[in-house]
Design brief:
It contains 12 helices and 2 strands; from the N terminus they run βααβαααααααααα.
Length: 238
Amino acid sequence: MADDERNAPCTVREEGAKSTPEGANSTPEGANSTPEGAVDFLTLIQSLKVTKRTGWIRKGIDGPESIADHMYRMSIMALIAGDNEGLDHSRCMKIALAHDMAEALVGDITPHDNVTKEDKEAMERTAMQKMTSMLGKKTGDHLLALWEEYEAGTSPEAKLLKDLDKLEMILQAQEYESSQSMDLNEFFTSTQDKFQTKTGIAWAAEISRRRPASSKEDATKEESNETDAKDAKKQRVE
């Protein structure tokens, strides 16, 4: 999930998902992708289709989305948002497809796993290097570079994709609130004031506007309680 709210201590893979394809081999350095390497890679990322997003598992969502579900809608978001920001929407779509690809091997690592940011990045980098080695140097290096661009988060495209990652999460939260009468306000508070682009700010406001009235009331009460707690703490200090 988004870096701000990956909410559960475990990843759920459905029975039949494989962590690595049997007999998977890296393609020799400098060679183009072979049919064997390409199919090994495609078999490996099948786990993204069946691995459920762990934040929704923790919240008890009925029929939670998979990692691939999240990546697909992010890609559609990139297709329609790139032009809004004057960016290369083709590159944005490619970054969206690459950004969570390492989770095919390492799963959806969350803050609740007590894994440091440095360790998480190292685990995902190792996974991406292993996966992209199946595709030959040209394709593999390109895919790895897309993932690295997202992780760095400094290019205009990466900044937009960081926003889209959060937007897709809160849009999904809003949909679960509406369809399953869930209180998912924590997903909204985790992204508050963290959007970097005009598109991110505008879309987040629209998604929040569409939340069920009961969720908005709960959010207002929660914010009021937090403010009261902060004021009380400040008075004690004084």
